[in-house]
Inverse folding.
């Protein structure tokens, strides 16, 4: 349990027998009834609830008791049986079905034209079998239905229990058995759908090895992965999974890191390269120094974020929940009216109208409707994670489908972000090496991509030490070397900027940096960056997918920006932007187009990404800031994942809407057909519950098959 500075506590409970959206709804309702509880979010896939509340001495125990009083246990996910086929629910369903079909065989086997002794005995046997079938099937939900009655909640267990008992009470034994058996089947299908989504998440968890081979005291030891400490060296032989996030200190190999980045081709790794837990070492021998605790590895954080993604519910899911809260009581009230009014006011046959009312009760059960969205969302998000795209919630998955404008940062996103130093132009007779020494000294403390190019070209030079280092946001850096003050950055830093040389290089599409002492410019450095492989192809595909406008936002000069924009097919570009001006540009685009996605590196562009409808971080693997700040993270630097992301979001939204509206329309059409007697009780269960549940489940699970190009 954690408590923040304003006195609000949060509690996470594992509930291993919370296996369907209906269960989650009951658990949420039970916890919300506890005094002081502010918010409850239940994750069916993770079998977990997160509760925020104002703490009191017994708050935690009260919350746990509420869960238990609702009929659920507080434990660990591992408490769930591995196979449902040997569970009591499945056994009850199986024998209920055997009795049901045996009863039908006995009933249909009658060949006497007139009732007689044989006919009566067959009828009694079939009736007994139907009742036994109803009892066995009902064992899966009678107890839960009774608890729902005690708490005055109209959940599916109560509705189905009422329908079974009501049908048996008016002598419709076959209908009672059909409801019990078919509803048990529907529940198994729903549980299978959730378990399938849960297995896809578990597949991510299974990527990490259970043990690691370490060197300790000069010996090789095998230890559980969770015992590996930062700084320890793991030995990874060919064909073994890398157990930790770390840096290669010896050896070279090719590594399949598709579980993290989605890259289809192996990546060469040698000394100094970063590797990730769960990736496969293919051919060479590697020694890896651990950079993170195993509990904080990139893969572990991906799994945690995928689990948490279910908590951020999509707009469609929120709509379904609101609709179900209105729909179920309304149809239940209609069912009571159908039973009572015709018999009391119009002298109708009680048996006929009671059966029609019970049919409406079955139709009021929102099983298929409630499961229609979460299974689709989890299926889509898990599929994306397997392809190197981390989506942090169903809300972002659905919002992406409405995005019509994509804004890109330039440096490091549309371009490689590793500009090469092409020209050094001294202005006062100093040598190239002297200029590079000063520039390298100041830029050695900078994280800007240009700093890397300067340092790369100054290798072998004697770089002086600097004091009083200061970064000037959006303009450059300054520091003192000895007794002299130097600056490296944009021309505006100096009283008399060298506009001629700067303009000359900028007309060639190059980025310029001025090196100066005090207010005097000493030299102009020119750099050229290249567009990222696949960037133009990605932008072209985004246009084909319905993105109306691609915008580039950069702090670089207009000439360089125009050159890159023309190369890649960018529709609109804005240059010389400070970070706050990028935010203003996103505000304008939001107002003009409604939904805007911002693609950047997740650090420098964080304010603009936060303001966008969806912030997308590039190359987030192993980058804490990018993983934490972005709504969507592309784990590799591969821009071709963007069209896949947008295609997945559009297919997901289409599947979700199909599921929601088909569920609603089928329920409403069945309800309309009940009053004239067109829809029977068995048809309501077959079409409205089991059939619809099977349909929406199959439709949702096909999202796992959406592939990258």
């Amino acid at each position: 349990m954690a408590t923040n500075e304003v006195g609000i506590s949060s509690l996470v409970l594992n509930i291993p027998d919370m296996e369907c959206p209906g269960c989650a709804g009951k658990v949420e309702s039970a916890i919300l009834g506890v005094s002081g509880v502010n918010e409850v979010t239940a994750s069916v896939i993770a079998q977990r609830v997160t509760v925020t509340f104002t703490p009191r001495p017994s708050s935690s125990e009260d919350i746990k008791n509420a869960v238990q009083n609702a009929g659920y246990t507080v434990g660990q996910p591992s408490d769930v049986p591995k196979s449902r086929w040997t569970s009591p629910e499945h056994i009850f369903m199986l024998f209920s079905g055997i009795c049901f079909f045996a009863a039908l065989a006995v009933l249909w086997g009658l060949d006497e034209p007139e009732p007689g002794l044989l006919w009566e005995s067959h009828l009694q046997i079939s009736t007994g079998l139907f009742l036994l079938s109803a009892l066995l099937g009902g064992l899966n939900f009678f107890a839960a239905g009774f608890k729902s009655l005690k708490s005055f909640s109209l959940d599916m267990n109560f509705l189905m229990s009422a329908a079974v008992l009501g049908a048996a009470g008016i002598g419709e034994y076959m209908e009672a058995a059909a409801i019990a058996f078919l509803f048990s089947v529907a529940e198994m299908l729903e549980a299978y759908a959730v378990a399938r989504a849960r297995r896809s998440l578990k597949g991510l968890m299974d990527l990490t090895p259970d043990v690691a081979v370490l060197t300790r005291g000069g010996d090789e030891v095998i230890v559980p992965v969770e015992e590996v400490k930062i700084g320890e060296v793991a030995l990874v032989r060919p064909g073994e999974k890398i157990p930790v996030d770390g840096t290669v200190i010896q050896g070279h190999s090719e590594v399949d890191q598709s579980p993290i980045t989605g890259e289809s081709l192996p990546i060469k790794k040698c000394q100094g390269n970063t590797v990730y837990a769960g990736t496969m070492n293919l051919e060479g021998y590697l020694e890896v120094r651990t950079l993170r605790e195993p509990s904080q590895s990139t893969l572990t954080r991906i799994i945690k974020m995928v689990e948490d993604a279910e908590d951020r519910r999509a707009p469609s899911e929120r709509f379904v929940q609101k609709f179900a809260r209105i729909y179920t009581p309304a149809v239940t009230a209609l069912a009571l009216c159908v039973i009572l009014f015709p018999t009391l006011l119009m002298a109708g046959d009680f048996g006929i109208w009671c059966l029609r009312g019970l049919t409406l009760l079955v139709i009021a059960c929102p099983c298929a409707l409630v499961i229609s969205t979460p299974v689709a969302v989890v299926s889509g998000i898990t599929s994306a994670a397997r392809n190197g795209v981390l989506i942090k919630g169903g809300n972002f998955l659905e919002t992406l489908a409405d995005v019509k404008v994509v804004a890109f940062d330039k440096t490091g996103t549309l371009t490689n972000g590793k500009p090469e130093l092409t020209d050094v132009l001294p202005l006062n007779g100093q040598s190239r090496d002297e200029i590079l020494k000063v520039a390298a000294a100041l830029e050695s403390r900078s994280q800007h991509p240009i700093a890397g190019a300067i340092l790369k070209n100054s290798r072998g030079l004697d770089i002086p030490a600097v004091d009083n280092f200061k970064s000037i946001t959006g303009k450059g850096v300054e520091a003192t070397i000895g007794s002299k003050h130097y600056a490296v950055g944009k021309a505006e830093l100096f009283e008399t900027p060298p506009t001629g040389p700067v303009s000359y290089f900028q007309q060639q599409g190059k980025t310029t940096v001025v090196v100066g002492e005090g207010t005097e410019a000493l030299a102009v450095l020119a750099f050229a960056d290249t567009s990222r492989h696949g960037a133009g192809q990605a932008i072209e595909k985004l246009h084909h997918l319905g993105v109306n406008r691609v915008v580039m936002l950069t702090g670089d000069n207009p000439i360089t920006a125009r050159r890159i924009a023309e190369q890649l097919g960018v529709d609109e570009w804005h240059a010389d932007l400070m970070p706050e001006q990028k935010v203003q540009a996103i505000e304008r685009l939001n107002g003009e187009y409604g939904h805007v996605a911002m693609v950047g590196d997740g650090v420098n562009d964080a304010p603009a990404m936060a303001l966008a409808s969806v912030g997308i971080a590039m190359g987030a693997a192993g980058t804490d800031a990018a993983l934490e700040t972005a709504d969507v993270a592309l784990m590799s630097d591969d821009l071709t994942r963007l069209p896949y992301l947008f295609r997945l979001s559009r297919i997901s939204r289409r599947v979700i809407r199909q599921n929601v509206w088909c569920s609603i329309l089928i329920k409403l059409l069945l309800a309309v057909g009940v009053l004239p007697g067109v829809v029977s009780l068995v048809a309501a269960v077959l079409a409205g519950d089991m059939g619809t549940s099977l349909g929406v489940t199959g439709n949702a699970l096909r999202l796992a098959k959406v592939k990258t190009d």
About this structure: The first strand starts at residue 2 and ends at 3.
